[in-house]
Design brief:
single chain, three-stranded mixed sheet, alpha/beta, 2 domains, 60s Ribosomal Protein L30, Chain: A, 246 residues, 6 strands
């Protein structure tokens, strides 16, 4: 059988791509292993015996946003010191605890959000991320607005970004609560698809319990999504954040 040159070229390209992806994955593994070693030393220096820092996301892929666990026996001051020590390691992004908190509240200097909060609020002041009645499916017309929200949030990567879903008061309260959570999840997925790391996102649904001031609780304008940048940890680009050649 004669093998055409084009087939050989495609096979060679696929082999090169596979090798490149394997090399990139190996590089990422080495990078997070170094971060993990430094995190262990930082935790030990703060007296956090039993606290661990996991540098892998929910799918097992390497990430520089560590999950801290084992802090339950410690007071807030120790947890705060441990989290800040890990967060100060060059290359580490947002640090979070397995119990859902970001940093302990005993900070001597509270963290201040960047301008992202104001930028997102400005976008949503004139437009709304819309949902049909009783639906958590994003309207296709939302695409451009979510693109702009993702772009506004990108300078704050490394912070914890809260996504809160709301509904109007029409219908059962418990159903509305579940619906508001599903709407927030839909926005979360849309942001992740646009490159916002899932590690920094927190999702909550409040149902119809927090209508907009001045509006009837039944007003459709209450079907909305709100964002809050709840903590900020400035970051620098790292090999994991910087895409390699395609």
């Amino acid at each position: 059988m004669v093998v055409r040159p084009s087939i050989l070229m495609i096979a060679g390209a696929l082999a090169s791509l596979s090798l490149g992806m394997a090399g990139a994955a190996h590089s990422d593994d080495i990078f997070v292993e170094e971060l993990a070693d430094k995190a262990r030393a930082a935790i030990a220096a703060q007296g956090g015996s039993g606290i661990t820092a996991e540098f892998a996301d929910r799918f097992g892929f390497p990430t520089r946003h560590p999950l801290l666990s084992g802090g339950e026996p410690y007071d807030e001051a120790t947890r705060d010191a441990v989290a800040k020590a890990v967060a100060s390691i060059p290359g580490v992004g947002g640090v979070r605890w397995a119990d859902g908190s970001m940093l302990a509240q005993a900070s001597e200097q509270p963290l201040s959000p960047l301008h992202c909060q104001d930028d997102v609020e400005a976008l949503l002041a004139a437009r709304t991320i819309r949902f049909d009645e009783a639906s958590s499916t994003l309207d296709p017309a939302n695409g451009t607005l979510i693109d702009e929200v993702a772009a506004a949030l990108r300078p704050c990567l490394g912070s914890i970004i809260s996504i809160t879903g709301h509904t109007d008061s029409v219908g059962d309260k418990e159903v509305n609560l579940v619906l508001s959570q599903a709407r927030a999840r839909a926005v979360e997925r849309a942001l992740i698809a646009r490159g916002i790391p899932s590690e920094g996102l927190r999702v909550e649904g409040l149902g119809s319990s927090a209508p907009l001031e001045g509006l009837s609780p039944a007003d459709p304008a209450n079907r909305r999504i709100e964002f809050e940048v709840v903590a900020t940890v400035p970051i620098e680009p790292t090999p994991i954040d910087t895409p390699g050649p395609r």
